[in-house]
Description:
The chain has 5 helices and 6 strands; from the N terminus they run E-H-E-H-E-H-E-H-E-E-H. The chain is 39% helix and 21% strand.
Amino acid sequence: MKALIITDGTDSILAIAKLIKEALAGNTKSKIKAKITDAADFKGNELLSSDFFFIGCEAPSPSSFSSIETFLKHVNLVSRKCGVFSAKTKTKSYLKGILKDSEADIAEPLIADADSVKKSDIKKWIKLVTK
């Protein structure tokens, strides 16, 4: 199985993305190979070939998300499970909004501070996304 983790490249979001990747790799039930990519380097074919995807940014509407916003308006991801994450509560509405047209199956968003989030919380959240 494959997962793609898309970030805005900020330190806090990248730190959470690394925890997500680590938790996915440690999933003993099913081997999930995860890749972290910066939204500025996003390629749609990587998302389309993934079983799950995660998308996170620190603040709404980062400039690096412009191409992914356009992509998500024109693709049907109804069969894909998605996890959105951020360090700020207001950002979850933005992320859910850009995913709306794609019809991806969005799990409850993860709002976490990279410095204090527990690995166990990440693992529990990933179970919601990947179930």
